[in-house]
Amino acid sequence: MIRPIRSFDFENAAPAGFYIALRVGFAFPMAEHNAFPDAWIETYTAEGFMLNDPVMRWVYGNSGAIRWSEIRLDDPHAILARAAQHGLRHGAAVSVSDENGTGQRSFGSFARDEREFTDAEIAELMAWMQQLHDSTAPPRKLTEAELEALRLVKDGLLLKQIADKLGVSEGAVKQRLRNAKIKLKAKNSTQAATIAMEYGLI
User: Fold this and answer.
1) CA geometry: angle at 52 spanning 12 and 59, to 5°?
2) How far apart are CA 124 and CA 65, in angstroms?
């Protein structure tokens, strides 16, 4: 389903640390990975920097890539200066979104200590983020009947109860769930329902 983040060389590309959020919908990402220094994560969280962080404001409002030093947004809490105290002196932000208007986006914030990111490095980070974003795209081919069956699995109903509720045979329910499992690459119906929930399909 999701191409592992470790299959990309983010550690060497951003030796001071990085943060990646995949498929951010209304509020929360489908998956995230925070490899910034622990002390910075603790400070950032304790002081509630996210809402005022110019990098976060940029990735939520734009698509593309930019160096932190090129972001022209207010930083009243001096978050970037505070980050530099933790070795995050130079950074790049990358944000990609769906072309189909679903509103989901994936983004990353990457840091170096010794120098700015080059254009080639930023282009590589952009390509990696696009690949990760595309690899986590929700399946589009599930039928409403299959989604309806998955919703009932999510609600804890058994096969016979689902069949009674939908007014169909148990065989029809089994086929719907079998199709959904194949499309979602799930091992069983419970996992298929969980995956569908992660994608916001049910």
Assistant:
1) 50
2) 11
